[in-house]
Amino acid sequence: xxxxxxxxxxxxxxxxxxVDRFYFPGTPIAVTEYSWGGEKSMNGATAQADILxxxxxxxxxxxxxxxxxxxxxxxxxxxxxxxxxxxxxxAFGDTSVTATVPDADTVSAFAALRTADNALTxxxxxxxxxxxxxxxxxxxxFQNEGVTDAMQLxxxxxxxxxxxxxxxxxxxxxxxxQSVTLLILHTHAN
Length: 190
Fold this sequence. Notes:
20% of the residues lie in helices and 36% in strands. The chain has three helices and ten strands, in the order H-E-H-E-H-E-E-E-E-E-E-E-E. It has a six-stranded antiparallel beta sheet with strand order 3-4-5-10-7-8, with helices on one face. Helix 2 (42-57) runs parallel beside helix 3.
């Protein structure tokens, strides 16, 4: 928040620091009753996808959303991309790994390994209202080649994208404006 506080607030790291310093080190932290609204818009969906990625990256123990979004809304679908994107329980990975981007205010990314099948899952969120985003993933510490499945939420619809190949530990993709894309990377050994 850059309003009255005069700078950015790293809320989750601050909470963790306060708990470790003033309570008991390592006590899990939680955020309860959060909501950014906009459930029926792609803006609400990108905000929800972004915050779930941040919660995972920051190892938040529990997050409780204030009022679940209606089924089928873009925000509901953004949540579904993390927990049940195929309607059969397929989910984002369970072991967080580092993902960096040049400007997280326009395009953010979160990554995790999925222990069930050793897939690398990468959630990429294009927050730009009208501009597509060219994304190039450099897959350090992962296999050099394999196949990529993808799910994408754009224009309020969740669709499965065609399977593609990645080579030389890189993958390029063009993301539509205001979209959430889940890339599921499998090595040939999977």
